[in-house]
Amino acid sequence: MSMINIAFSGLQAAQLGMNVTSMNTANYLTSGYSRQGIIQSAVGPMGEAGISPGSGVQVDSIRRISSQYLVNQVWQTNSKSNYYSMGNQYISSLEKVIGTDSTSLGTGLDDFVSAMSALTQQPESPALRQQLLNQANTLATRFNSMNDFISSQKESITTQRGAMVDQINTLSGGIADYNKKIVEMEATGGNASVLRDQRDELVKQLSSMADVKVSDDSSGYTVSLSNGQPLVSGKTAGQLECRDGRQR
């Protein structure tokens, strides 16, 4: 192969490398984008007679520069963070109700017991009798208010869970679609790096709603809940539903 042809192969490889660099630069601020790089190798002599240094260079593939271990760590951290965040939200609301003197059951019980104790000392006192009745009514009101609060929280959780199940189903379907597209593209030698990034973004969103386990094989991601219930297997996505407030 002539020197010109060898140089031309180098220019082609360099041009593709510059295209990849431009892609990386353009997506520097794109959420979830993974850098790409080229894998190139030397091309040996192509049957020329005599001694030949080789036939130039070729680009074998474009690789996605990403650590699956770190990606999995992000997903796990995301799940834990959301779990504690959601729990803290409801606990904080409960603490405000319990910890406020005007609504606290503890304060109401203390006042009721004090009124009862005072009446036992002077059972004939009309004022103390009325005070006990007042404290009993106040305590009953506090119990009713607490019951209303708990019912409201339960309804809120049920509504939120239903909306979350719908989102999980949508994301699971999206991941299954990306599995299919990635397998098809890579089967023809295409570069599916961007599709893989977009699929990982969906898994990241999913991990903020549920504790998920992800494994990768030739058919794509297999995604399941921590209890083993499958959500995605290859190009197939399962469907969750809530019945009587319970996830199924």
TrEMBL record:
Localization in the cell: Bacterial flagellum; Secreted
The keyword Secreted is assigned to this record: yes
Keyword annotations of the record: Bacterial flagellum, Cell projection, Cilium, Flagellum, Secreted
Transmembrane region(s): none
Region spans: Disordered: 225-248
Any one GO BP annotation for this protein: bacterial-type flagellum assembly
GO terms for cellular component: bacterial-type flagellum hook; extracellular region
Segments forming domain Flagellar hook-associated protein FlgK helical: 92-244
Protein name per the record: Flagellar hook-associated protein 1
Organism: Kluyvera cryocrescens (Kluyvera citrophila)
Lineage of source species: Bacteria, Pseudomonadati, Pseudomonadota, Gammaproteobacteria, Enterobacterales
